[in-house]
Amino acid sequence: MSLLSLQNLTVRFGGLVAVNDFSMEVEQGTIHALIGPNGAGKSTVFNCISRFTTPTEGRITCDGVDTLALPEHAIAGAGIARTFQNLELLYRMTVLETVLVGITSRTPGYMPFLPGMKRARIEARAVAEADEIIEQMGLMPWRGTLAGELDFGRQKMLDVARALSLRPKLLLLDEPAAGLRNREIAFIDELLVRMSREMGITIVLVEHVMQLVMSVADRITVLNFGQKIAEGTPADIRTNPQVIEAYLGSDAHA
Ligand code: ADP
Ligand code: MG
């Protein structure tokens, strides 16, 4: 059963067609990679799903909900969370505060001015939940550190933690491994598999690090100039002549 369905999406920016009649089905519980050269339209597809961009044409449903009918602020409530290719963290917040914002935003009845006892109980539960996510991301030693003072790899992990704090059904990851070292990429590899298999989160992964994509993806869709040029298992994609020509051919991605 597909959780996310993109039907005939087209996005025009003035004369530029960034996404061209693009359709994709993402099966519930899978890791689905979306790959292709720079400028292919991958981030624009994410922006449509998360309501940052409204497509010129097309339909998007997530778990049966027509997401294009929702305002941007309702997207998290519909179970969709994302990370950003260019991190958009609030650098003056600590790791704990960053994760708590997501948790309290979906805590029914939470308000900063609740009476003392009740508020303390809800907050203790929120902190326990935040700590669990911080631990999973390997960030416990930096729990009280400002986001702006973390190194780049840990900022990327915090962005994933922030997305996870929304307890999404669908998680959109935009180049989580970009700029990371091998050891950090190995951590992300394990983390993605854990989020998918143990937490049941459906993941759409935009990524250029092919070693990661080929290792974790159940299915891969390839975009080029806004159009789908191939779709299949990692084995299908690795040997697809059109994909090799448009994207995988260069040594950088081999
Ligand atoms: P990718 O993530 O695959 O590298 P993008 O989705 O970022 O590609 O971009 C696809 C195309 O759309 C590029 O040519 C890019 O310059 C253009 N584009 C993206 N966002 C905008 C925007 N807000 N306004 C105008 N052009 C845009
Ligand atoms: Mg991009």
Could you please describe the fold and organization of this structure?
By secondary structure, the protein is an alpha/beta fold. A hairpin with a 2-residue loop joins strand 4 and strand 5 (65-66). The two termini are 32 Å apart. Helix 2 crosses helix 3 and helix 2 (95-105) packs parallel to helix 4 (152-164). It contains 8 helices and 10 strands. The structure holds adenosine-5'-diphosphate and magnesium ion (MG). Adenosine-5'-diphosphate binds next to strand 2 and helix 1.
In short:
The chain is α/β, with parallel strands linked by helices.
Tell me the Rg in angstroms.
19 Å
Ligand inventory reads:
adenosine-5'-diphosphate, magnesium ion
Strand content: 15-25%
Can you count the helices? 8
Query: How many distinct beta strands?
Result: 10
> Structural class, please?
alpha/beta
The average pLDDT is 92
In which range does the helix fraction lie? Answer: 25-40%
Please give the alpha-carbon distance between the first and last residues.
32 Å
Q: Outline the low-pLDDT stretches.
A: none
Q: Main beta sheet: strand number and arrangement?
A: 6 strands, mixed
Strand line-up in the sheet with most strands: 6-7-8-3-9-10
Shape: globular
**What is the string of helix and strand elements?**
EEEHEEEHHHEHEHEEHH
